[in-house]
Write a structure and sequence with these properties.
Layout: H1 2-41, H2 46-55, H3 58-77, H4 82-94, H5 101-120, H6 129-175, H7 180-190, H8 194-207, H9 212-223, H10 226-241, H11 245-292, H12 295-303
Helix pairs in contact: 1-3, 3-5, 5-6, 6-7, 6-11, 7-8, 8-9, 9-10, 10-11
Membrane topology: Multi-pass membrane protein
InterPro entries: T2SS_GspF_dom
Protein name: Tight adherence protein C
Length: about 300
């Protein structure tokens, strides 16, 4: 056990040392560039910057930069394939995790290795250390993979829940005489949420010169929600055929609300089945103890 603790301390020390070398070099460069900009612009913000730094918590001043430095250091020594980079980038976009795919992969490596080393401390002898290390790696891999998929699913559910109201707002704006782009701008300025964030990306891409059809199709690929895909296809078709956008939005609103209602009914029908397992595991044993507990001493005395 003591040998395992020494190994953990050694690994942590090496990581911290590696981080300090990388982070220290970056910090000196950042301070140099910042100081040059201050001299150039005639800014005198050093004192205020120092006060802001001292007002930050210990986590913001030390732990967070330490973790970011370790992640950056690991990303420098762990190559990643272009195909893996693109696939992970798409998943991070679907989960609304605004992080570089290389850094995210490096963070996963650090967490998985950390769990592996942590599990090694539960080994009773040195022969089982490697087995516990592998178990820790497996648990860490499953945990990180499940966490990403869970974030994607949660964001999809949020988009589905926000879609009916957003379509109604679009319909009201179109009825009021606004164009589709103007309606998008109005909604983006007055609402928030994952679906609004996606519409913000669409609006920004259109302003940068991308065709509306291409921007909407890209949004459909990012969301991967059937209702959003149907809505975007209907809008594109209405734009191509000259159909009234108001009628299209009304039809889509009714359809999506019906689908959302059916989804809620389906989830409500699954609740009794999900409640059954906690009842069997936690409630029934307590009931048995309360009902049969007083009879146990009597039965024990009778058999003696």
């Amino acid at each position: 056990m003591e040998y395992g603790l020494v190994k953990v301390i050694g690994v942590i020390s090496f990581i911290v040392f590696f981080f300090s070398m990388v982070k220290g070099r970056e910090s000196r460069q950042k301070r140099f560039h910042k100081r040059m900009m201050e001299i150039k612009e005639g800014s005198r913000t050093n004192h205020q910057h120092g006060k802001d730094e001292m007002e930050k918590s210990f986590r913001e001043r030390f732990l967070l930069p330490l973790a970011l430095g370790i992640i950056k250091g690991v990303s420098l020594v762990t190559p990643i394939k272009e195909s893996t980079h693109q696939e992970l980038e798409k998943k991070l976009a679907k989960a609304d995790i605004r992080m570089n795919p290389r850094d995210y992969r490096s963070m996963n490596i650090v967490i998985i290795l950390g769990l592996g080393i942590l599990f090694m401390q539960f080994a009773s002898d040195g022969g089982q250390s490697f087995l516990y290390f592998l178990i820790g790696l497996f648990v860490g891999y499953i945990y990180r993979r499940w966490g990403l998929e869970k974030a994607i699913t949660k964001r999809k559910d949020s988009i589905k829940g926000q879609l009916p109201e957003t379509i109604d707002l679009l319909g009201v704006c179109v009825v009021a005489g606004l164009s589709f782009d103007q309606a998008l701008t109005y909604i983006i300025e007055r609402a928030e949420g994952p679906l609004i964030d996606e519409f913000s990306v669409v609006k920004r891409e259109i302003m940068l010169g991308k065709r509306r059809k291409e921007a909407l199709l890209a949004m459909s690929e990012r969301c991967e929600v059937d209702e959003v895909r149907n809505l975007i296809n209907a809008i594109i078709q209405a734009d191509a055929l000259g159909i009234s956008l108001q009628n299209v939005l009304e039809t889509q609103s009714k359809t999506i609300r019906e689908v959302y209602k059916q989804d809620m009914e389906e989830r409500a029908g699954k609740i009794p089945i999900k409640i059954l397992l906690p009842m069997v595991a936690f409630i029934f044993p307590v009931i048995f103890i309360i009902l049969l507990g007083p009879a146990v001493p009597l039965m024990k005395a009778a058999f003696q």
